[in-house]
Design brief:
alpha+beta, Phosphorylase Kinase, domain 1, 5 domains, three-stranded antiparallel sheet, 22 helices, 12 strands, about 60% helix
Length: about 550
């Protein structure tokens, strides 16, 4: 607790800066709910300044503008949220996907200090040429073109000085804000802000270590080594560290530069298809894919070769999830909503509280909306967005990599149609899924799964005698304990207890009435106003107790 207080005080200036920006962009209602726990009374007047004329913009636009003003951490957070349409509404996804890194270049002296510290050498000892003007600058780093002493042209990616501390501070603040939002804005729990921040923290910390990106590149390069239409840059590990990444320089045409591609005799249709086939192969064969194929990360080389860069974000789909995806696609093809729902259950993303009948009905309606349409009329992006909307309607949380895969396909479909207006992802998707499905049911291609099952069965049979002997030994020594988990049994016990108390109370009242009646009939004992005192007192007590019991029953609402 004391540590959290010290952190909050240390980060107070940044807290105030963040809250002021959110107030400026019209989110003062949320800030008012959570800032009470963050700021002393005399600091709240710092949050009173609002932006002028900003309310004419929609909420998603104002959120994007706030994130851009707050810098690197919030830009990255917004970009991550734009990949999670199962968490946030579609209009926010669309707007946050427009977030662009707007980062000033670092001072040359600061960048040189980073390089010298990491290499423990001067720049002239490493590079024969070094371009001081960066060729790109993003939220966490900037890139310079250089030439190694050995002659290779390279791209040198350098982490912004001090960015680690800034991001660490922002993540601490985001964690505090997420917990406060959950506490003070109950409707936010549907979107799990605490879970979003934790996922984001893990993701961005990986990106801050360029060794992780270098490994991603090597893994991708190994998978794509037999693909002549894909070029993956080489990592120069002798010059790479956590804060510096040195790669083969890709001298290509930006995939968005259509005119230059025409002038260079590039077949845009072929490039679009090469990229799509590559992504589908990454997903359905390798289970490992480049998760950010937007135009800024894709270059085209002579021979219609596609060269992806920036491997900070990659997606992974394990064998079980690949099988689940194939079952979902198969269910859509044969109009089997039960198969789709069953698959969602199997891969563990549906909770017991979901109404399966309603889900199956909505899935069938979703399938019927596009079933039988010609492939060239199908829009993958639209289908993915409609499916995500359906998933959100039923409060189903998809695994992050599944959502990222869907967004990757949707992003590339836009890229492909920009290259070639008649490009259709479905025309390539269907053959790939059919091939993957047949490979799945082919025993020769399932040897790893068969071997794993056999090994597990052998282990079970081998250990079964020991397990049985252990159980029998505990039984014979009266040491076997069976633990039962009960749900809401305390409420049942309390209900029975209340009912028995009322029953006992009623019996006492009935006994008082009967006893008093007998005393009055016998006409024994002291007499008051012509009636036996004990009988009269008994009736009075019974009346009070009866009224008390009746009031208690009425107040409980269980009349």
């Amino acid at each position: 607790m004391k540590r959290n207080i010290r952190k909050s005080l240390r980060n107070l200036k940044r807290y105030q800066e963040i809250l002021k920006v959110f107030v400026k962009y019209g989110f003062d209602d949320v800030v008012n709910k959570v800032s009470i726990a963050l700021l002393p009374e005399n600091a709240k007047n710092l949050l009173l300044v609002k932006g002028k004329n900003l309310h004419r913009f929609s909420t998603p636009i104002r959120l994007r503008m706030a994130f851009e003003e707050l810098g690197a951490t919030f830009i990255k957070l917004g970009q991550m949220l734009s990949l999670r349409p199962d968490f946030i509404p579609a209009e926010f996804v669309l707007e946050l996907s427009k977030l662009q890194d707007n980062v000033q270049n670092d001072e040359l002296e600061e960048i040189n200090d980073v390089l010298v510290k990491e290499f423990n050498k001067s720049l002239t000892d490493i590079f024969s040429e070094y371009d001081e003007i960066p060729i790109a600058s993003a939220s966490i780093g900037q890139v310079h073109k250089a030439k190694l002493k050995t002659g290779e042209i390279v791209a040198v990616k350098i982490l912004h000085p001090g960015i680690e501390r800034k991001i660490e501070t922002d993540i601490e603040i985001l964690e505090d804000l997420a917990n406060l939002i959950v506490m003070h804005v109950p409707e936010s729990r549907l979107y799990d802000p605490v879970g979003i921040v934790r996922e984001f923290g893990k993701s961005i910390k990986k990106e801050l270590n360029f060794i992780n990106e270098g490994r991603n590149i090597d893994t991708f390069r190994n998978y794509m080594k037999d693909e002549p239409t894909i070029k993956t840059p080489v990592v120069y590990w002798d010059y790479t560290s956590e804060r510096v990444l040195v790669l083969e320089y890709i001298n290509g045409i930006k995939i968005s530069d259509l005119q230059l591609m025409e002038e260079s005799d590039i077949d845009r249709k072929q490039v679009a298809e090469n990229g799509a086939k590559s992504i589908l192969k990454q997903i359905f064969e390798f289970g490992y894919f480049h998760a950010d194929p937007h135009p800024g990360n894709l270059f085209v080389l002579p021979g219609n070769i596609l060269a992806p860069i920036d491997f900070g974000n990659v997606g992974r789909i394990d064998e079980e999830m690949q099988d689940g995806l194939l079952d979902i696609l198969k269910g859509a093809v044969v109009r089997d909503s039960y198969r789709i729902a069953r698959t969602l259950i199997h891969i563990g993303i549906i909770e017991d509280t979901i109404n399966l009948r309603d889900l199956q009905r909505d899935l069938m309606e979703f399938i019927d909306n596009f079933y039988g349409m010609p492939l060239n009329q199908l829009n993958l992006t639209k289908l993915i967005n409609e499916f995500i909307t359906l998933i959100r309607l039923h409060k189903i949380k998809l695994p992050p990599d599944i959502v990222i895969m869907g967004r990757t396909l949707a992003i590339y479909e836009v890229v492909g149609r920009n290259l070639y207006p008649q490009f259709n992802m479905f025309e390539l998707l269907i053959p790939f899924t059919e091939k993957a499905f047949f490979n799945r049911i082919n025993p020769l291609n399932r040897y790893r799964s068969i071997i794993r099952t056999a090994e597990n069965s052998i282990d079970l049979l081998k250990n079964l005698p020991d397990y049985l002997q252990n159980i029998l030994h505990k039984i014979s020594n009266n040491k076997l304990k069976i633990t039962f988990h009960h749900d809401r049994l305390e409420e049942l016990a309390q209900g029975i207890d209340r009912a028995s108390n009322r029953l006992s109370f009623s019996i006492i009242i009935a006994a008082l009435i009967i006893g008093s009646s007998i005393i009055i009939q016998l006409d024994r004992g002291p007499i008051l106003w012509g009636y036996p005192v004990f009988g009269t007192v008994g009736f009075i007590i019974a009346s009070f107790l009866g009224i008390w019991l009746l009031i208690g029953i009425i107040r409980s609402g269980k009349l």
